[in-house]
From TrEMBL:
GO terms for molecular function: dTMP kinase activity. The keyword ATP-binding applies. Pfam families: Thymidylate_kin (PF02223). This is Thymidylate kinase. InterPro entries: P-loop_NTPase, Thymidylate_kin-like_dom, Thymidylate_kin_CS, Thymidylate_kinase. Residues 151-171 are annotated as: Disordered. The keyword Hydrolase does not apply. Keywords: ATP-binding, Kinase, Nucleotide biosynthesis, Nucleotide-binding, Transferase. Signal peptide: none annotated. Residues 11-205 form the Thymidylate kinase-like domain.
Length: 227
């Protein structure tokens, strides 16, 4: 498990699943309980990793192929782990991270078609023993997630039949959904699946109760002193 005494929680899932809202709500609830919380994200989260984020998300690395992109995601992850996550956990912080190693398994490994030993080797080097204590997977039919994302970006609220490109996208997103669920099935101790079609309030309550079971909290709502 992660570098105790902190708690390392990662959040995974497809587009339009509401991860970032839920991370903010959880962080606020945990801070109210007197805990020190760090919200972070990937790719990025440290100075070096944010520089690599720009290269990845701008599409600048795309011409060099999926293998190059996978290595860059791993480079960013390594910097993020060593510069930010590991020290925060060692200081007793609750670290909430928007996407982590499972996104590489799914986006580069499954829908990127990279061979598993390559992905596994990169993961090992990048996380260097810092495995999430808990990974919350936001599960949503791809069509609903894409619709939400489309509404958000167009602001129109109108629903149209998906065109050829969107259909292709839909298949890819559905494949990613299955891949996340597959990880959850294979690693039930680390992963929890949340139904992201529920209301924000229901999801927030579920996420908080999941994380609370992992925290040493007293009745007064303060972290217990570990002697
Ligand atoms: P971001 O704008 O942070 O999106 P989201 O709100 O979907 O989390 O973009 C991150 C993108 O990078 C997202 O499309 C998933 C992708 N990604 C990978 O392909 N591999 C990875 O290892 C990570 C961390 C992210």
């Amino acid at each position: 498990m992660s570098a105790a005494p902190g708690l390392f929680v990662t959040f995974e899932g497809g587009e339009g699943a509401g991860k970032s809202t839920q991370i903010r709500l959880l962080a606020a609830a945990l801070r109210e309980r007197g805990l020190t919380v760090l919200m972070t994200r990937e790719p990025g989260g440290s100075k070096g990793a944010e520089a690599v984020r720009h290269v990845l998300l701008s599409g600048a690395a795309e011409p060099y192929g999926i293998r190059m992109e996978a290595v860059l995601f791993a480079a960013a992850r390594s910097d993020h782990v060593e510069q930010v996550i590991r020290p925060a956990l060692a200081a007793g912080t609750v670290v909430l991270c928007d996407r982590f190693m499972d996104s590489s398994r799914v986006y580069q490994g499954i829908t990127g078609n990279l061979e598993q030993p390559f992905i596994e080797a990169l993961e090992r080097v990048a996380i260097n023993g810092v495995v999430p204590d808990c990974t919350i997977i936001f599960d949503l039919p791809a069509a609903i997630g894409l619709e939400r994302a489309r509404k958000r970006s167009s602001g129109s609220g109108e629903s149209a039949e998906p065109d050829r490109f969107e259909k292709e996208e839909l298949e890819t997103h559905e494949k990613r959904r299955e891949a996340f669920l597959d990880i959850a099935e294979r690693e039930p101790l680390r992963c929890r699946v949340v139904d992201a079609t529920e209301t924000q309030e229901v999801i927030a309550a579920q996420v908080l109760s999941l994380v609370e079971t992992l925290l040493p909290i007293t009745a007064e709502g303060r972290p217990e002193q570990v002697s």
